[in-house]
Amino acid sequence: MTRMRLVVVTTEEPTYIPKTFEGLFKTRLRESIRLVVILPPFSGKKTILDVARGQATLGVRYFLFRGFQYAMSKALPDPINRYSVEALARKNRIPVMKVADVNALGMIDTLRGMEPDLVISVMASQIFSKRLISIPRWAAINVHPGRLPEYRGLMSNFWVLLNREAETSVTVHLINEAIDGGEIVLEKSVPISEDETFHTLSNKTAKVSADAVYDAVCLFEEKGGKPATIPNPAAKGSYFSFPRFDDAREFEKRGLRIL
Questions:
Q1: Domain that holds residue 192
Q2: Number of structural domains, the chain?
Q3: Which residues are within 8 A (CB) of 56 and not within 5 positions of it... i.e. 6 or more apart?
């Protein structure tokens, strides 16, 4: 079997994304990942302070918890660092590039020269341009920790809990210029337990995301780059943004927990 050429674009985040990569790197895809591109945890005019304020919206305990994990991601040496995608990639001898803008001309040229079969977004913090989407031989795909089209956007695990859903999904879809808007390649259901917290559900979806990416890549491989897809009509779904302070208080009022 010819080895595929995969490029993964992600964001350095210490709590959930590394769990997806731990799972991915345990599969045969590890040998096919030619590059991991790491973006800043913010896009546009946002700064690291904006990210910190967003975490604080979810409560002091969660803010301190995330701060501790961020500190561990910077302090621990690579062999024992499970909080950093960069460290995990280096441990698995996979090249890493840290870039400010995945759509910059230099980055586009680099990716084009690699001739990837698939470009895979794992919680990437930037929207892909048309030029980037057109580079891979088969497709650019994204793994989204929510059911589509119902839960497009950010923090799906928060909103499904607030809406008292019995289950959620991890969805792999084709990337187009709309947010979470391309046709769906596959979905994996994730049950929500009665005592589920935002943190435990986010851990679940992060781990299932590794399985979803693996299965989606296998589908592309088996179908010569053209797996069957299903529609993802934006008109039938909703877009969710990062929770505001009032949303977090309503979450708490309903007896739900972040941690």
A1: 6-253
A2: 1
A3: 63
User: Does residue 259 lie within any of the structural domains?
Assistant: no
For residue 54, the model assigns a pLDDT of 72
pTM over 0.90: yes
Here the CATH number for the domain that contains residue 80 is 3.40.50.170
One-letter identity of residue 225: G
Q: Which residues contact 50 (CB under 8 A, 6 or more apart)?
A: 42
Q: What is the dihedral of CA 214, 220, 222, 228, to 10 degrees?
A: 110
Task: Specify the pLDDT at position 44.
Answer: 60
pLDDT tens digits for 19-65?
A: 999 999 999 999 999 999 999 987 665 666 666 677 778 998 999 99
Residue 227 included in any domain: yes
DSSP element (H, E) containing 54 = helix 48-57
Query: Strand pairing partners for 88?
Result: none
Whether residue 1 lies inside any domain: the answer is: no
- The residues, any chain, with a CB within 8 Å of residue 99's CB and separated by 6 or more, are 37, 38, 39, 107
Q: Which residues are CB-contacts of 219 (< 8 A; sequence separation ≥ 6)?
A: 185, 186, 227
Distances (CA, A) of 202 to 34, 45, 76, 240: 27, 26, 23, 16
